[in-house]
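My current task is to audit a protein record that another person submitted. What it holds is a sequence and that sequence's fold in token form. Thanks in advance; the entry in question is below.
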Amino acid sequence: MTTPLHISVLLREVVAALAPREGAVYVDGTFGAGGYARALLDAAPCRVFGIDRDPTAVARGAIMAQDYDGRLTVLDGRFGDMDSLLAAEGVHSVDGVALDLGVSSMQIDQAERGFSFQKSGPLDMRMEKSGPTAADLVNTLPEAELADILWRYGEERHSRRVARAIVMDRKLNPFTTTNQLAEMLRRVVPRSKDGIDAATRTFQGLRIAVNDELGEVSRGLAAAERLLAPGGRLAVVAFHSLEDRAVKDFLKRRSGAAAQPNRFMPAPTDVRAPSFQLLSKKAIQPADDELAVNPRSRSARLRIAERTDAEAWGDGEDRA
């Protein structure tokens, strides 16, 4: 029995949430291997636009599109630009958007991409294969900036110790490979009681910084809000707390479910009509049968919401 190239997490639940129907238009904003797109296209005679910043995924999508007689179009770009990307295709509203956040298992499994501390490869981590690499960050950033990245994006409790060790080591031997960095982290970071590899949080923090992943999540949610037609559905799968918190907070605000101000304070004068209605108050987690087949799905959380007919709030509402 061979292992599949990629297993789309919470696939049944995402498709059920988007409820594909004839003639509808959907966006698979994190195309990857096309798992969500294929399931939507097979479920109904609809049209799907896939988006991916990874040129390997886009090339794979071009081949897959041949199976669907014009119903699948895969675009090279970031899902944070989905509304402008689709506008260039003559599409200005859609009936559903699916997002599977973070790095894909295919990228992790390709040692040459440098995402995994379990495989020897160049210290890269770029989804788009362009721009500064993780090696550029660890070899050039000031110690304080490195520590901040590891604390904010990797939630590494020992971020200052790690940053100090990186700066000391790079003076003699600049970091070039995943193994080199991972071995240093295992010397510096105390062994975790829960068995998590000492390199986990630092690799996560660097990857998020290299790809501006949290910024892209914020832009993507706002773009989906602008693009979805009234009654359109948004389904977002997140894998770690930073992503999931961003999605949860966005949907809480947009649905009017966020905490209200103190009743003794003056009532706000800029109350906005909810642009989304929550379809599930709690995140949906993988069922036992999925966990048995794909252990990597254990941290996945799905949040779903339906677009109202209210005006989109716009990007500025989410900026600190």
Notes: The first helix runs from residue 11 to 18.
